[in-house]
Structures are given as C-alpha cells and as structure tokens.
Amino acid sequence: MAIDIGGAKIEGSGVFKLKNTSNDIIYSRELSTYSGNLFAKNIQSKIPMFQAGTSTNPGWVGWTSSWRKMSVNFNNVSINNGNHYNTSSTRFNVPITGPYLFIYTSYIYSSSYLHPQFAVNGGVATRRPVNTPYRIRGHGMVANHQQDAQIEEVIYCIAGDYVEPYGYAGGTAYSYDAHALFCGIYVG
Questions:
Q1: Mean pLDDT computed over 103-125
Q2: Residue 138 to residues 14, 109, 176: CA-CA distances in angstroms?
Q3: Is residue 38 within 8 Å of 154, Cβ to Cβ?
C-alpha cells in the first residue's frame, strides 16, 4: 500500500520506492536474500551523476596566463546516469534544479600558481552566493614543483545550466589529463 504525501508517494513490497508528484521513481532500494542473509542493493538510476576522464593520454597540456577549460579531453565516462555528461562538449548538462556536488582533480605543475574553479554557463561566479570562490594552488612554491588541483563544491544549479572545470594559470601551467577526473552528483 502506498503512502501519499502531498502527491509524492512512498511504496513498499520487496522494493522501497520514493516517487515525486509526477510519479517518477527518485529513489529505489531492492531488498532480497543472499545465502540466507538480508542485504540491500541501491538502485539509483534516476539520480543524475557522472564520472568523466580521458580515454587517451594527451600528455602534459599547457597554457599561460589565461583560463583553460580543464575537461577539454574528458571524452570518456565510467558513470553517466541519465547521460547528462556530454562527451562531445565535455561538460555536464544539469537536468533538474537543485544542489549538485562537483569534484575535479588533476596532477599539475606551474611556474607560478593556479586557480581551479567550476564554471556554470561559462562563468566562474555564476550561481555563487557572493563572488567567485577562489582557490589557489602553488602560490609561494618554488616554480615547477608538482601540485594537485583538486576542488569540491556544492553548487545550486538550475535545469538547463551546464558545468565545467576551469583553471587560471598565473604563469605557465600544465595538467596531466590522463591523471585527472571530473565528476558530479545531484544531492538534493
């Protein structure tokens, strides 16, 4: 028997399901037995999530005193629930309004410093509460020492937005895309 809460439903009978007011399953947990023990298997195909990287090794990719789209070579996905990460444009297209957790990581080195950022609709300040949340990597380090460019951020996105990782090099910077990753998940 389903429980109706303002048009949204909770259902059971071997599979615990949450449905939104459009009757779409937004969460499902299947219960079954294995060797006499009860275990649960998460079935979350409706939750937008992705994990992208490169399918080749382009080697060190460099740029000088400018912004660079860091996912330009990320044409391969290991997770792509809903197919919202586009391997041609190498960006995540937001399917539903709400908060998303994004993570980008890369092995880098630079002659100065690097600002890794997430860009929403091409802007690094878009959908932020105050201003651009600058992060700085490598500032004050001896030139050419290796660093990481890992960033994480929860961004409240609007359906139709797109998100990409960018990096600003304060001098000349290089990323090793074969050891980089861009991922995200809807957490609303």
A1: 86
A2: 53, 8, 16
A3: no
Looking at per-residue pLDDT, the higher value among 15 and 22 belongs to 22
Do 26 and 96 touch, CB atoms closer than 8 A?
no
Compute the distance between CA of residue 32 and CA of residue 39 in angstroms, rounded to an integer.
6
Token pair for 35: 């060797």
61-95 tens-digit pLDDT: 888 888 999 998 999 999 999 999 999 999 999 99
Q: Give the residue with greater pLDDT, 40 vs 174.
A: 174
d(CA 73, CA 143): 26
Q: How far is CA 145 from CA 48, 109, 111, 113, in A?
A: 37, 6, 8, 10
Half-sphere CA count of 110, side-chain side, radius 13 A: 29
What residues does CATH 2.60.120.40 cover in the chain?
Answer: 49-186
Model pTM?
A: 0.73
Whether the per-residue pLDDT at 183 is higher than 90: the answer is yes
H or E element that contains 169 = strand 162-169
The topology (CATH level 3) of 49-186 is Jelly Rolls (2.60.120)
